[in-house]
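User: Let's play a game. I give you a shape written as tokens, and you guess the letters that built it. Ready? Here's round one.
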């Protein structure tokens, strides 16, 4: 399609509206915690949900995790503060350095793990914890069509069927263990479309990539491969996602139910975990900190935002 600027931005909003309805992602009056890193995808997500907030009576809250990755994190935080100010939203900004005493790179070196795995663990935990403290109905992330199709193919290649079965645009919450629903409203919007959207609307966003990104990783290779297929057969990614959800996902769901990975509450922090003590509490203890004190600090920061 060849669209003018106004029709293009309307097209993206229409697509997200249709996605919210198609996958039953939100109900009227829901409160949604939008995770915003400051990149083009999460900024598009926030702007589009902001446009649709009256139509769905959404109460929008924003979470940004400042990872303390030098100039990159400074820019991300500035962008999030600037954008949320425009909408009159007071974001919850959690500074990893303030909460855990060091940035993600230093934590990774201390516990001898890769920075991305430590970063992922911390972000996942903080998102769940903040969603629980704020008692929101759902958590929205900026995963795009490119991300979802990349994960489908990658997890199929590695045969990580448990992770693959959880890969859905809408993942129901598990209230008994404090887990909120997870929604991916941009799952049918491409990265090309998010980058065009922020440019056309002159929305502030961070262009720089995190210095820890590994361009040789499998994620990148799979994305490149899918891009080359999409170039030759436009629409291939969307059809891969929809067919996966219609045909393979229900079978995998059955597999997950039968293999029954149990979710409990962590003995220390009461958040969801598959073991007795969650990986965040174990990480915090390895840093020589007391999980209870760290959580008290986080809770205080969230409630005072
Ligand atoms: Fe975190 Fe950067 Fe790795 Fe992404 S690339 S997981 S932001 S450290
Ligand atoms: Zn815990």
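Assistant: Ready! My guess for every position:
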């Amino acid at each position: 399609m060849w669209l003018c600027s106004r029709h293009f931005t309307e097209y993206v909003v229409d697509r997200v509206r249709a996605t919210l309805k198609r996958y039953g992602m939100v109900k009227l009056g829901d409160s949604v915690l939008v995770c915003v890193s400051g990149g083009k995808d999460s900024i598009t997500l926030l702007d589009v949900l902001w446009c649709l907030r009256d139509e769905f009576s959404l109460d929008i809250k924003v979470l940004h995790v400042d990872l303390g990755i030098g100039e990159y994190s400074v820019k991300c935080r500035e962008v999030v503060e600037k954008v949320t100010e425009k909408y009159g939203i007071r974001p919850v900004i959690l500074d990893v350095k303030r909460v855990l005493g060091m940035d993600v790179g230093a934590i990774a070196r201390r516990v001898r793990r890769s920075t991305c795995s430590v970063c992922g663990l911390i972000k996942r935990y903080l998102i769940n914890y903040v969603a629980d403290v704020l008692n929101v109905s759902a958590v929205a992330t900026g995963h795009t069509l490119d991300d979802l199709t990349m994960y489908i193919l990658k997890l199929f290649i590695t045969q990580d069927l448990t992770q693959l079965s959880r890969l859905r645009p809408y993942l129901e919450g598990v209230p008994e263990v404090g887990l909120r629903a997870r929604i991916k409203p941009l799952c049918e919007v491409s990265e090309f479309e998010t980058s065009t959207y922020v440019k056309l609307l002159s929305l502030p966003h961070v262009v720089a990539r995190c210095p820890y990104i590994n361009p040789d990783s499998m994620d990148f290779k799979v994305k490149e491969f899918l891009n080359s297929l999409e170039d030759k057969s436009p629409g291939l990614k969307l059809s891969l996602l929809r067919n996966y959800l219609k045909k393979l996902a229900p079978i995998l769901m059955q597999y997950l139910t039968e293999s029954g990975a149990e979710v409990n509450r962590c003995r220390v922090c009461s958040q969801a975990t598959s073991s007795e003590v969650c990986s965040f509490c174990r990480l915090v203890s390895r840093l020589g900190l007391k999980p209870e004190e760290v959580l008290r600090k986080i809770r205080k920061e969230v409630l005072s935002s």
